[in-house]
Amino acid sequence: MSEYHKVTTLSELPIGSKKLIQLQGRAIAVFNVDGEFFAIDDVCTHDGGPLVEGDLEGCEIECPRHGARFDVRTGQARSMPAFENVATHLVKVEGNDLLVQLSNT
Amino acid sequence: MSKTGFSKSTFQSVLKHYQGPSWFEEIRKQAWDSCCAQSFPSQNDEEWRRTDIRAWDPESFIPADLLGNQKSARNIDLDATSDTADYGGVLITVDGTPYSQKPEHPLTTDGIFFGTLDQALSDIPDRIQSYLSAQALKLNHDRFSAMHTAFLNGGTVLHVPKGVQLEVPLYDICALASEHIADCSHLLVILEENASATLLHKVVSTNKTLPGMHIGAVDLILKEGSKLNYIELQNWGDEVWNFSRQQALLQNNATLQWTTACLGSYVSKANQEIALEGSGAVAEMNGIMFANNRQHLSYHTKQHHMAPHTQSDLLYAGALNDHSRSVWRGMIRVEPDAQKTNAYQRNDNLLLSEEARADSIPGLEIEADDVRCTHGATAGKIDADQIFYAMCRGMSESEANLMVIEGFFGRVYDRVTSPSIRHQLNQAVADKLGIESGSEHPSFISESTS
Protein backbone atom coordinates (compact mmCIF):
# COMPACT_ATOMS: atom_id res chain seq x y z
CA MET A 1 0.00 0.00 0.00
CA SER A 2 1.44 3.38 -0.94
CA GLU A 3 1.57 6.25 1.51
CA TYR A 4 -0.09 9.63 1.69
CA HIS A 5 1.95 12.48 0.20
CA LYS A 6 1.45 16.17 0.68
CA VAL A 7 0.59 17.61 -2.70
CA THR A 8 -0.63 21.14 -2.06
CA THR A 9 -2.11 23.47 0.55
CA LEU A 10 -5.80 24.14 0.96
CA SER A 11 -5.25 27.84 0.32
CA GLU A 12 -3.99 26.97 -3.16
CA LEU A 13 -7.16 25.02 -3.91
CA PRO A 14 -10.21 27.20 -3.18
CA ILE A 15 -13.77 25.98 -3.69
CA GLY A 16 -14.57 25.19 -7.32
CA SER A 17 -10.93 25.03 -8.36
CA LYS A 18 -8.68 22.29 -9.76
CA LYS A 19 -4.97 21.74 -9.88
CA LEU A 20 -2.46 19.52 -11.61
CA ILE A 21 0.02 17.79 -9.35
CA GLN A 22 2.89 15.43 -10.10
CA LEU A 23 3.24 12.44 -7.86
CA GLN A 24 5.61 9.52 -8.41
CA GLY A 25 5.84 10.12 -12.12
CA ARG A 26 2.09 10.42 -12.59
CA ALA A 27 -0.06 13.41 -13.48
CA ILE A 28 -2.90 13.73 -10.96
CA ALA A 29 -5.75 16.25 -10.91
CA VAL A 30 -7.08 17.42 -7.53
CA PHE A 31 -10.40 19.23 -7.11
CA ASN A 32 -12.24 21.20 -4.47
CA VAL A 33 -15.98 20.61 -4.89
CA ASP A 34 -17.90 22.63 -2.32
CA GLY A 35 -15.18 22.11 0.28
CA GLU A 36 -14.69 18.42 -0.42
CA PHE A 37 -11.44 17.29 -2.04
CA PHE A 38 -10.98 14.65 -4.72
CA ALA A 39 -8.09 13.29 -6.79
CA ILE A 40 -8.18 11.44 -10.12
CA ASP A 41 -5.70 10.47 -12.83
CA ASP A 42 -5.34 13.46 -15.10
CA VAL A 43 -5.72 11.31 -18.18
CA CYS A 44 -8.93 11.03 -20.18
CA THR A 45 -9.69 7.36 -20.77
CA HIS A 46 -10.83 8.12 -24.30
CA ASP A 47 -7.82 9.85 -25.83
CA GLY A 48 -5.38 10.58 -23.02
CA GLY A 49 -6.36 14.27 -22.82
CA PRO A 50 -5.39 16.44 -19.82
CA LEU A 51 -8.67 16.66 -17.85
CA VAL A 52 -7.45 19.40 -15.54
CA GLU A 53 -7.43 21.78 -18.48
CA GLY A 54 -11.17 21.29 -18.96
CA ASP A 55 -14.11 22.96 -17.24
CA LEU A 56 -15.25 21.83 -13.80
CA GLU A 57 -19.02 22.08 -13.44
CA GLY A 58 -20.25 20.92 -10.06
CA CYS A 59 -18.65 17.53 -9.61
CA GLU A 60 -18.06 16.91 -13.33
CA ILE A 61 -14.90 17.65 -15.25
CA GLU A 62 -15.08 17.94 -19.02
CA CYS A 63 -12.16 16.84 -21.18
CA PRO A 64 -10.96 19.75 -23.32
CA ARG A 65 -10.33 17.51 -26.32
CA HIS A 66 -13.62 15.81 -27.13
CA GLY A 67 -15.97 16.78 -24.30
CA ALA A 68 -16.03 13.49 -22.38
CA ARG A 69 -17.20 14.09 -18.80
CA PHE A 70 -16.17 12.35 -15.58
CA ASP A 71 -17.47 12.48 -12.04
CA VAL A 72 -14.45 13.58 -10.01
CA ARG A 73 -15.86 11.93 -6.86
CA THR A 74 -16.08 8.42 -8.31
CA GLY A 75 -14.12 8.60 -11.55
CA GLN A 76 -17.21 7.44 -13.40
CA ALA A 77 -17.40 8.24 -17.11
CA ARG A 78 -20.58 10.29 -17.53
CA SER A 79 -20.66 10.91 -21.25
CA MET A 80 -19.26 9.73 -24.54
CA PRO A 81 -16.79 9.49 -26.13
CA ALA A 82 -15.28 8.08 -22.91
CA PHE A 83 -16.82 4.93 -21.51
CA GLU A 84 -14.13 3.68 -19.14
CA ASN A 85 -13.89 5.19 -15.67
CA VAL A 86 -10.84 7.19 -14.67
CA ALA A 87 -8.79 6.05 -11.65
CA THR A 88 -9.48 7.81 -8.35
CA HIS A 89 -7.11 8.31 -5.42
CA LEU A 90 -7.67 8.71 -1.69
CA VAL A 91 -7.26 12.18 -0.24
CA LYS A 92 -7.15 13.55 3.28
CA VAL A 93 -6.64 16.92 4.92
CA GLU A 94 -4.09 17.54 7.65
CA GLY A 95 -4.14 21.10 8.92
CA ASN A 96 -3.75 23.28 5.86
CA ASP A 97 -2.26 20.47 3.76
CA LEU A 98 -3.91 18.22 1.22
CA LEU A 99 -2.51 14.69 1.03
CA VAL A 100 -3.02 12.07 -1.67
CA GLN A 101 -2.52 8.32 -1.63
CA LEU A 102 -2.08 6.80 -5.08
CA SER A 103 -4.20 3.78 -5.88
CA ASN A 104 -2.78 0.95 -7.95
CA THR A 105 -5.44 1.12 -10.61
CA MET B 1 26.00 15.48 -5.70
CA SER B 2 23.12 17.92 -5.78
CA LYS B 3 20.77 17.99 -8.72
CA THR B 4 21.58 20.78 -11.12
CA GLY B 5 18.93 20.67 -13.81
CA PHE B 6 19.74 22.29 -17.13
CA SER B 7 20.18 25.97 -16.36
CA LYS B 8 22.60 28.36 -17.99
CA SER B 9 25.06 27.98 -15.13
CA THR B 10 24.85 24.18 -15.52
CA PHE B 11 25.66 24.53 -19.19
CA GLN B 12 28.61 26.80 -18.40
CA SER B 13 29.91 24.26 -15.89
CA VAL B 14 29.65 21.53 -18.51
CA LEU B 15 31.56 23.65 -21.04
CA LYS B 16 34.25 24.39 -18.44
CA HIS B 17 34.95 20.66 -18.20
CA TYR B 18 34.93 20.21 -21.97
CA GLN B 19 38.27 19.43 -23.59
CA GLY B 20 37.26 18.71 -27.18
CA PRO B 21 37.93 20.71 -30.35
CA SER B 22 36.76 24.30 -30.56
CA TRP B 23 34.54 23.73 -33.62
CA PHE B 24 32.55 21.22 -31.64
CA GLU B 25 32.33 23.56 -28.66
CA GLU B 26 30.85 26.15 -31.02
CA ILE B 27 28.18 23.64 -32.12
CA ARG B 28 27.27 23.05 -28.48
CA LYS B 29 26.97 26.78 -27.81
CA GLN B 30 24.63 27.11 -30.79
CA ALA B 31 22.64 24.19 -29.44
CA TRP B 32 22.31 25.89 -26.07
CA ASP B 33 20.98 29.05 -27.78
CA SER B 34 18.52 26.88 -29.71
CA CYS B 35 17.54 25.15 -26.48
CA CYS B 36 16.79 28.51 -24.81
CA ALA B 37 14.71 29.66 -27.77
CA GLN B 38 12.37 26.66 -27.61
CA SER B 39 9.98 25.34 -25.03
CA PHE B 40 9.37 21.71 -24.20
CA PRO B 41 6.57 20.13 -26.22
CA SER B 42 3.14 19.88 -24.68
CA GLN B 43 0.17 17.63 -25.31
CA ASN B 44 -1.15 20.29 -27.64
CA ASP B 45 1.56 19.30 -30.13
CA GLU B 46 0.23 16.53 -32.32
CA GLU B 47 3.42 14.49 -31.96
CA TRP B 48 3.16 14.59 -28.14
CA ARG B 49 -0.59 14.32 -27.91
CA ARG B 50 -0.47 10.80 -26.51
CA THR B 51 2.78 11.10 -24.56
CA ASP B 52 2.35 12.84 -21.23
CA ILE B 53 5.58 14.28 -19.83
CA ARG B 54 4.00 16.67 -17.32
CA ALA B 55 5.29 14.57 -14.45
CA TRP B 56 8.84 14.76 -15.84
CA ASP B 57 10.99 17.25 -13.97
CA PRO B 58 14.27 18.03 -15.77
CA GLU B 59 15.46 19.93 -12.70
CA SER B 60 15.73 16.70 -10.77
CA PHE B 61 18.61 15.46 -12.93
CA ILE B 62 22.27 16.19 -13.33
CA PRO B 63 24.20 16.02 -16.64
CA ALA B 64 26.59 13.07 -16.67
CA ASP B 65 29.53 15.40 -17.36
CA LEU B 66 29.13 16.96 -13.91
CA LEU B 67 29.34 13.70 -12.01
CA GLY B 68 32.95 14.66 -11.26
CA ASN B 69 34.76 12.79 -8.52
CA GLN B 70 31.85 10.50 -7.89
CA LYS B 71 32.85 8.53 -10.97
CA SER B 72 35.46 6.51 -9.12
CA ALA B 73 33.01 5.64 -6.36
CA ARG B 74 30.56 3.92 -8.64
CA ASN B 75 29.69 0.38 -7.83
CA ILE B 76 29.24 -1.11 -11.25
CA ASP B 77 27.65 -4.44 -11.79
CA LEU B 78 27.59 -5.32 -15.43
CA ASP B 79 27.29 -9.07 -15.05
CA ALA B 80 24.15 -8.95 -17.09
CA THR B 81 26.14 -7.64 -20.00
CA SER B 82 29.20 -9.85 -19.69
CA ASP B 83 28.18 -12.16 -22.49
CA THR B 84 30.55 -10.56 -24.94
CA ALA B 85 32.60 -13.48 -26.28
CA ASP B 86 30.76 -13.61 -29.59
CA TYR B 87 31.66 -10.08 -30.56
CA GLY B 88 34.65 -8.68 -32.45
CA GLY B 89 34.74 -5.49 -30.41
CA VAL B 90 33.05 -4.38 -27.20
CA LEU B 91 32.78 -0.85 -25.89
CA ILE B 92 31.18 -0.17 -22.52
CA THR B 93 30.31 3.33 -21.37
CA VAL B 94 28.94 3.96 -17.88
CA ASP B 95 27.35 7.27 -16.91
CA GLY B 96 28.91 8.83 -20.00
CA THR B 97 32.44 7.68 -19.13
CA PRO B 98 34.35 4.90 -20.95
CA TYR B 99 34.44 1.83 -18.75
CA SER B 100 36.13 -0.81 -20.87
CA GLN B 101 37.09 -1.30 -24.45
CA LYS B 102 38.09 -4.25 -26.62
CA PRO B 103 40.24 -4.01 -28.68
CA GLU B 104 42.14 -1.47 -26.61
CA HIS B 105 42.96 0.76 -29.56
CA PRO B 106 39.92 1.91 -31.45
CA LEU B 107 41.70 2.19 -34.80
CA THR B 108 42.56 -1.18 -36.35
CA THR B 109 45.01 -1.96 -39.13
CA ASP B 110 42.12 -2.23 -41.60
CA GLY B 111 41.30 1.39 -40.85
CA ILE B 112 38.14 0.49 -38.96
CA PHE B 113 37.42 2.82 -36.08
CA PHE B 114 35.27 1.62 -33.18
CA GLY B 115 35.63 3.82 -30.13
CA THR B 116 34.25 6.66 -28.09
CA LEU B 117 33.17 9.97 -29.56
CA ASP B 118 35.99 11.72 -27.67
CA GLN B 119 38.55 9.32 -29.16
CA ALA B 120 37.06 9.89 -32.60
CA LEU B 121 37.22 13.67 -32.22
CA SER B 122 40.88 13.33 -31.35
CA ASP B 123 41.96 10.48 -33.70
CA ILE B 124 39.81 10.80 -36.81
CA PRO B 125 38.25 14.30 -36.76
CA ASP B 126 38.45 14.61 -40.54
CA ARG B 127 36.30 11.50 -41.01
CA ILE B 128 33.46 12.64 -38.75
CA GLN B 129 33.49 16.42 -38.61
CA SER B 130 31.27 16.98 -41.63
CA TYR B 131 28.64 14.54 -40.30
CA LEU B 132 28.64 15.90 -36.80
CA SER B 133 28.37 19.49 -37.89
CA ALA B 134 26.08 19.13 -40.88
CA GLN B 135 24.01 15.99 -40.75
CA ALA B 136 24.26 14.29 -37.41
CA LEU B 137 23.37 17.08 -35.03
CA LYS B 138 20.12 18.69 -36.01
CA LEU B 139 19.80 21.51 -33.55
CA ASN B 140 16.35 22.72 -34.32
CA HIS B 141 14.31 19.57 -34.48
CA ASP B 142 12.96 20.26 -31.00
CA ARG B 143 14.18 21.26 -27.55
CA PHE B 144 15.24 17.73 -26.75
CA SER B 145 17.56 17.62 -29.78
CA ALA B 146 19.10 20.92 -28.77
CA MET B 147 19.53 19.73 -25.18
CA HIS B 148 21.15 16.56 -26.44
CA THR B 149 23.80 18.48 -28.34
CA ALA B 150 24.38 21.13 -25.68
CA PHE B 151 24.85 18.57 -22.90
CA LEU B 152 26.39 15.84 -25.04
CA ASN B 153 28.53 13.61 -22.83
CA GLY B 154 30.23 11.38 -25.34
CA GLY B 155 29.04 8.35 -27.16
CA THR B 156 30.25 5.85 -29.70
CA VAL B 157 31.58 6.09 -33.24
CA LEU B 158 31.91 3.27 -35.75
CA HIS B 159 33.59 4.11 -39.04
CA VAL B 160 34.20 1.38 -41.59
CA PRO B 161 36.36 2.35 -44.59
CA LYS B 162 35.53 1.72 -48.22
CA GLY B 163 35.17 -1.93 -49.19
CA VAL B 164 35.88 -3.35 -45.71
CA GLN B 165 33.53 -6.16 -44.70
CA LEU B 166 33.23 -6.67 -40.94
CA GLU B 167 32.12 -10.27 -40.51
CA VAL B 168 31.92 -10.40 -36.69
CA PRO B 169 29.34 -8.27 -34.84
CA LEU B 170 30.39 -5.36 -32.63
CA TYR B 171 28.81 -4.62 -29.28
CA ASP B 172 28.29 -1.20 -27.76
CA ILE B 173 26.88 -0.90 -24.24
CA CYS B 174 25.73 2.36 -22.73
CA ALA B 175 24.83 2.04 -19.04
CA LEU B 176 23.43 4.23 -16.29
CA ALA B 177 24.81 3.36 -12.86
CA SER B 178 24.20 6.45 -10.73
CA GLU B 179 21.02 8.11 -9.51
CA HIS B 180 19.47 11.07 -11.30
CA ILE B 181 22.02 11.09 -14.11
CA ALA B 182 21.06 12.60 -17.44
CA ASP B 183 22.89 10.72 -20.16
CA CYS B 184 23.14 12.60 -23.47
CA SER B 185 25.20 10.20 -25.55
CA HIS B 186 25.41 9.97 -29.30
CA LEU B 187 25.93 7.00 -31.59
CA LEU B 188 27.40 7.68 -35.00
CA VAL B 189 27.89 4.90 -37.56
CA ILE B 190 29.45 5.64 -40.94
CA LEU B 191 29.87 2.92 -43.53
CA GLU B 192 31.85 4.01 -46.59
CA GLU B 193 31.20 2.60 -50.08
CA ASN B 194 30.60 -1.16 -50.15
CA ALA B 195 31.50 -1.58 -46.47
CA SER B 196 29.46 -3.80 -44.18
CA ALA B 197 29.05 -4.26 -40.43
CA THR B 198 26.78 -5.58 -37.69
CA LEU B 199 26.40 -3.56 -34.48
CA LEU B 200 24.46 -4.35 -31.33
CA HIS B 201 23.80 -1.23 -29.28
CA LYS B 202 22.49 -1.92 -25.82
CA VAL B 203 21.34 0.73 -23.36
CA VAL B 204 20.76 -0.49 -19.83
CA SER B 205 20.54 0.55 -16.17
CA THR B 206 22.68 -1.40 -13.73
CA ASN B 207 19.89 -1.12 -11.17
CA LYS B 208 16.25 -1.27 -12.25
CA THR B 209 15.10 1.27 -9.64
CA LEU B 210 17.59 4.05 -10.38
CA PRO B 211 15.89 7.24 -11.52
CA GLY B 212 17.56 8.52 -14.66
CA MET B 213 17.17 10.21 -17.97
CA HIS B 214 18.51 9.67 -21.44
CA ILE B 215 18.36 12.21 -24.22
CA GLY B 216 20.13 10.40 -26.98
CA ALA B 217 20.62 10.33 -30.70
CA VAL B 218 21.60 7.72 -33.25
CA ASP B 219 22.90 8.50 -36.72
CA LEU B 220 23.51 5.80 -39.28
CA ILE B 221 25.20 6.92 -42.50
CA LEU B 222 25.28 4.30 -45.27
CA LYS B 223 27.27 5.20 -48.34
CA GLU B 224 26.77 3.62 -51.75
CA GLY B 225 26.50 -0.17 -51.72
CA SER B 226 27.14 -0.47 -47.99
CA LYS B 227 25.30 -2.86 -45.73
CA LEU B 228 24.51 -2.38 -42.05
CA ASN B 229 22.76 -4.63 -39.59
CA TYR B 230 21.96 -2.47 -36.56
CA ILE B 231 20.23 -3.79 -33.45
CA GLU B 232 19.24 -1.64 -30.49
CA LEU B 233 18.23 -3.25 -27.22
CA GLN B 234 16.70 -0.63 -24.94
CA ASN B 235 16.53 -1.97 -21.40
CA TRP B 236 16.66 1.09 -19.15
CA GLY B 237 15.47 0.85 -15.57
CA ASP B 238 11.87 1.29 -14.52
CA GLU B 239 12.36 4.95 -13.58
CA VAL B 240 14.21 6.24 -16.60
CA TRP B 241 12.80 8.85 -18.94
CA ASN B 242 14.06 8.07 -22.41
CA PHE B 243 14.00 10.52 -25.30
CA SER B 244 15.75 9.58 -28.48
CA ARG B 245 16.07 10.81 -32.04
CA GLN B 246 17.38 8.26 -34.49
CA GLN B 247 17.95 8.51 -38.19
CA ALA B 248 19.53 6.63 -41.06
CA LEU B 249 20.63 8.00 -44.40
CA LEU B 250 20.94 5.51 -47.26
CA GLN B 251 22.74 6.26 -50.49
CA ASN B 252 22.51 4.29 -53.74
CA ASN B 253 22.02 0.54 -53.27
CA ALA B 254 22.74 0.69 -49.55
CA THR B 255 21.03 -1.92 -47.40
CA LEU B 256 19.97 -1.40 -43.80
CA GLN B 257 18.45 -3.86 -41.41
CA TRP B 258 17.44 -1.97 -38.27
CA THR B 259 16.01 -3.88 -35.33
CA THR B 260 14.76 -2.23 -32.16
CA ALA B 261 13.83 -3.99 -28.94
CA CYS B 262 12.17 -1.62 -26.53
CA LEU B 263 11.71 -3.16 -23.10
CA GLY B 264 12.80 -0.72 -20.44
CA SER B 265 12.21 2.85 -19.21
CA TYR B 266 9.23 4.52 -17.55
CA VAL B 267 8.47 6.72 -20.53
CA SER B 268 10.10 6.34 -23.92
CA LYS B 269 9.63 8.66 -26.82
CA ALA B 270 11.67 7.82 -29.88
CA ASN B 271 11.69 9.21 -33.38
CA GLN B 272 13.13 6.88 -35.97
CA GLU B 273 13.60 8.00 -39.53
CA ILE B 274 15.13 6.32 -42.51
CA ALA B 275 15.91 8.55 -45.45
CA LEU B 276 16.29 6.55 -48.66
CA GLU B 277 18.28 9.13 -50.57
CA GLY B 278 19.82 6.93 -53.23
CA SER B 279 18.27 4.78 -55.93
CA GLY B 280 18.09 1.09 -55.11
CA ALA B 281 18.40 1.61 -51.34
CA VAL B 282 16.66 -1.01 -49.22
CA ALA B 283 15.71 -0.68 -45.56
CA GLU B 284 14.05 -3.05 -43.17
CA MET B 285 12.86 -1.79 -39.78
CA ASN B 286 11.92 -4.35 -37.18
CA GLY B 287 10.79 -3.68 -33.67
CA ILE B 288 9.50 -5.37 -30.58
CA MET B 289 8.00 -3.48 -27.67
CA PHE B 290 7.21 -5.17 -24.39
CA ALA B 291 5.77 -3.05 -21.60
CA ASN B 292 4.34 -3.67 -18.15
CA ASN B 293 3.26 -1.73 -15.04
CA ARG B 294 2.75 1.89 -16.07
CA GLN B 295 5.29 2.01 -18.85
CA HIS B 296 4.63 4.25 -21.79
CA LEU B 297 6.46 3.45 -25.03
CA SER B 298 6.02 5.81 -27.93
CA TYR B 299 7.64 5.19 -31.30
CA HIS B 300 7.33 7.54 -34.24
CA THR B 301 8.74 6.08 -37.41
CA LYS B 302 9.21 7.62 -40.83
CA GLN B 303 10.14 5.82 -44.02
CA HIS B 304 11.21 8.63 -46.29
CA HIS B 305 11.54 7.64 -49.93
CA MET B 306 13.49 10.30 -51.78
CA ALA B 307 14.79 8.37 -54.81
CA PRO B 308 13.34 5.92 -57.34
CA HIS B 309 13.46 2.13 -56.93
CA THR B 310 13.76 2.24 -53.15
CA GLN B 311 12.26 -0.29 -50.77
CA SER B 312 11.31 -0.19 -47.11
CA ASP B 313 9.62 -2.74 -44.93
CA LEU B 314 8.60 -2.03 -41.32
CA LEU B 315 7.30 -4.57 -38.84
CA TYR B 316 6.71 -3.60 -35.19
CA ALA B 317 5.18 -5.94 -32.65
CA GLY B 318 4.13 -4.80 -29.19
CA ALA B 319 3.05 -6.82 -26.16
CA LEU B 320 1.48 -4.84 -23.32
CA ASN B 321 0.72 -5.92 -19.78
CA ASP B 322 -0.80 -4.25 -16.68
CA HIS B 323 -1.52 -0.52 -17.21
CA SER B 324 1.12 -0.04 -19.87
CA ARG B 325 0.60 1.86 -23.03
CA SER B 326 2.23 2.01 -26.44
CA VAL B 327 1.98 4.50 -29.24
CA TRP B 328 3.22 3.73 -32.70
CA ARG B 329 2.86 6.42 -35.29
CA GLY B 330 4.27 5.46 -38.63
CA MET B 331 4.62 7.49 -41.79
CA ILE B 332 5.59 6.46 -45.29
CA ARG B 333 6.55 9.57 -47.21
CA VAL B 334 7.19 9.28 -50.95
CA GLU B 335 8.65 12.27 -52.77
CA PRO B 336 7.59 13.07 -56.38
CA ASP B 337 10.83 11.68 -57.85
CA ALA B 338 10.68 8.41 -55.91
CA GLN B 339 8.86 6.40 -58.59
CA LYS B 340 8.78 2.59 -58.28
CA THR B 341 8.91 2.87 -54.50
CA ASN B 342 7.90 -0.28 -52.64
CA ALA B 343 7.01 0.44 -49.02
CA TYR B 344 5.22 -1.48 -46.29
CA GLN B 345 4.51 -0.87 -42.63
CA ARG B 346 2.79 -3.05 -40.11
CA ASN B 347 2.19 -2.82 -36.36
CA ASP B 348 0.69 -5.68 -34.36
CA ASN B 349 -0.19 -5.47 -30.68
CA LEU B 350 -0.90 -8.15 -28.12
CA LEU B 351 -2.83 -6.94 -25.08
CA LEU B 352 -2.10 -9.04 -21.99
CA SER B 353 -4.40 -7.16 -19.63
CA GLU B 354 -7.73 -5.33 -19.70
CA GLU B 355 -6.10 -2.03 -18.77
CA ALA B 356 -3.28 -2.02 -21.34
CA ARG B 357 -3.69 0.19 -24.35
CA ALA B 358 -2.05 0.36 -27.78
CA ASP B 359 -2.46 3.23 -30.20
CA SER B 360 -1.42 2.46 -33.79
CA ILE B 361 -1.48 5.27 -36.28
CA PRO B 362 -0.13 4.35 -39.70
CA GLY B 363 0.12 7.05 -42.32
CA LEU B 364 0.93 7.55 -45.99
CA GLU B 365 2.00 10.69 -47.83
CA ILE B 366 2.58 9.83 -51.47
CA GLU B 367 3.49 12.33 -54.13
CA ALA B 368 4.61 9.90 -56.84
CA ASP B 369 2.14 8.02 -59.07
CA ASP B 370 3.86 4.71 -59.74
CA VAL B 371 4.45 3.18 -56.32
CA ARG B 372 3.35 0.33 -54.11
CA CYS B 373 2.71 1.44 -50.53
CA THR B 374 0.68 -0.60 -48.06
CA HIS B 375 0.17 -0.70 -44.33
CA GLY B 376 -1.66 -2.50 -41.58
CA ALA B 377 -2.23 -2.43 -37.84
CA THR B 378 -3.84 -4.88 -35.43
CA ALA B 379 -4.53 -5.15 -31.71
CA GLY B 380 -5.85 -8.21 -29.93
CA LYS B 381 -6.02 -9.91 -26.56
CA ILE B 382 -3.96 -12.91 -25.57
CA ASP B 383 -5.87 -16.15 -26.10
CA ALA B 384 -6.82 -17.48 -22.65
CA ASP B 385 -7.29 -20.98 -24.09
CA GLN B 386 -3.64 -21.08 -25.17
CA ILE B 387 -2.49 -20.11 -21.68
CA PHE B 388 -4.83 -22.68 -20.12
CA TYR B 389 -3.58 -25.39 -22.48
CA ALA B 390 0.07 -24.67 -21.65
CA MET B 391 -0.61 -24.55 -17.90
CA CYS B 392 -2.38 -27.90 -18.08
CA ARG B 393 0.91 -29.28 -19.32
CA GLY B 394 2.93 -28.11 -16.37
CA MET B 395 4.00 -24.61 -17.29
CA SER B 396 3.63 -21.73 -14.90
CA GLU B 397 1.48 -18.83 -16.04
CA SER B 398 4.52 -16.65 -16.74
CA GLU B 399 6.16 -19.42 -18.77
CA ALA B 400 2.96 -19.87 -20.76
CA ASN B 401 2.83 -16.12 -21.32
CA LEU B 402 6.44 -16.16 -22.45
CA MET B 403 5.73 -18.88 -24.97
CA VAL B 404 2.84 -16.96 -26.48
CA ILE B 405 4.77 -13.68 -26.47
CA GLU B 406 7.81 -15.31 -28.08
CA GLY B 407 5.58 -16.77 -30.74
CA PHE B 408 4.13 -13.33 -31.29
CA PHE B 409 7.59 -11.73 -31.52
CA GLY B 410 8.79 -14.67 -33.63
CA ARG B 411 8.31 -12.96 -36.95
CA VAL B 412 10.60 -10.16 -35.82
CA TYR B 413 13.14 -12.56 -34.24
CA ASP B 414 13.21 -14.52 -37.49
CA ARG B 415 14.61 -11.48 -39.25
CA VAL B 416 17.59 -11.29 -36.86
CA THR B 417 20.24 -13.50 -38.40
CA SER B 418 22.85 -13.52 -35.59
CA PRO B 419 22.04 -16.35 -33.12
CA SER B 420 23.80 -14.60 -30.22
CA ILE B 421 21.85 -11.39 -30.75
CA ARG B 422 18.59 -13.30 -31.09
CA HIS B 423 19.40 -15.05 -27.84
CA GLN B 424 19.96 -11.68 -26.13
CA LEU B 425 16.55 -10.47 -27.27
CA ASN B 426 14.88 -13.68 -26.11
CA GLN B 427 16.62 -13.51 -22.76
CA ALA B 428 15.70 -9.89 -22.16
CA VAL B 429 12.02 -10.68 -22.70
CA ALA B 430 12.23 -13.73 -20.42
CA ASP B 431 13.95 -11.69 -17.71
CA LYS B 432 11.21 -9.12 -17.87
CA LEU B 433 8.61 -11.81 -17.33
CA GLY B 434 10.55 -12.93 -14.25
CA ILE B 435 11.78 -16.19 -15.74
CA GLU B 436 15.28 -16.73 -14.44
CA SER B 437 18.27 -16.69 -16.74
CA GLY B 438 19.67 -20.11 -17.43
CA SER B 439 16.44 -21.86 -16.53
CA GLU B 440 15.57 -25.16 -18.17
CA HIS B 441 13.78 -23.49 -21.02
CA PRO B 442 14.76 -19.85 -21.26
CA SER B 443 13.48 -19.78 -24.77
CA PHE B 444 10.86 -21.75 -26.59
CA ILE B 445 12.19 -20.69 -29.93
CA SER B 446 14.88 -22.94 -31.31
CA GLU B 447 18.13 -21.29 -32.26
CA SER B 448 18.40 -21.36 -36.01
CA THR B 449 21.83 -22.18 -37.32
CA SER B 450 21.25 -20.83 -40.79
Topology:
The complex is a heterodimer of chains A (105) and B (450).
Chain A: E1 4-9, E2 18-23, E3 26-33, E4 36-41, E5 56-57, E6 60-62, E7 69-71, E8 77-79, E9 88-94, E10 97-101
Antiparallel strand pairs in A: 1-10, 2-3, 3-4, 4-9, 5-6, 6-7, 7-8, 9-10
Chain B: H1 8-17, H2 22-37, E1 62-63, E2 89-94, E3 97-102, E4 113-116, H3 117-123, H4 125-136, H5 143-150, E5 155-160, E6 170-176, E7 181-183, E8 186-191, E9 196-205, E10 212-222, E11 227-235, E12 240-250, E13 255-262, E14 267-276, E15 282-291, E16 296-305, E17 311-320, E18 325-334, E19 342-351, E20 357-366, E21 372-381, H6 384-392, H7 397-413, H8 419-432
Helix pairs in contact in B: 2-5, 3-4, 6-7, 7-8
Notes on the protein architecture:
The complex is a heterodimer of chains A (105) and B (450). Chain A has no helices and 10 strands. Chain A has strands at residues 4-9, 18-23, 26-33, 36-41, 56-57, 60-62, 69-71, 77-79, 88-94, 97-101. In chain A, the strands form 2 sheets. Chain A has a 6-stranded antiparallel β-sheet with strand order 1-10-9-4-3-2, with no helix packed on it. In chain A, strands 5-6-7-8 form a 4-stranded antiparallel β-sheet, with no helix packed on it. In chain A, a hairpin with a 2-residue loop joins strand 3 and strand 4 (36-41). Chain A starts with a strand and ends with a strand. The model of chain A has no long low-confidence stretch (mean pLDDT 91). Chain B has helices spanning 8-17, 22-37, 117-123, 125-136, 143-150, 384-392, 397-413, 419-432, and strands at 62-63, 89-94, 97-102, 113-116, 155-160, 170-176, 181-183, 186-191, 196-205, 212-222, 227-235, 240-250, 255-262, 267-276, 282-291, 296-305, 311-320, 325-334, 342-351, 357-366, 372-381. In chain B, strands 1, 4, 5, 7, 8, 10, 12, 14, 16, 18 and 20 form an 11-stranded mixed β-sheet that branches. In chain B, helix 3 crosses helix 4 (125-136). Chain B is globular and about 65 Å long. The chains are: A mainly beta (105), B alpha/beta (450). Chains A and B meet through strand 2 of A and loops of B.
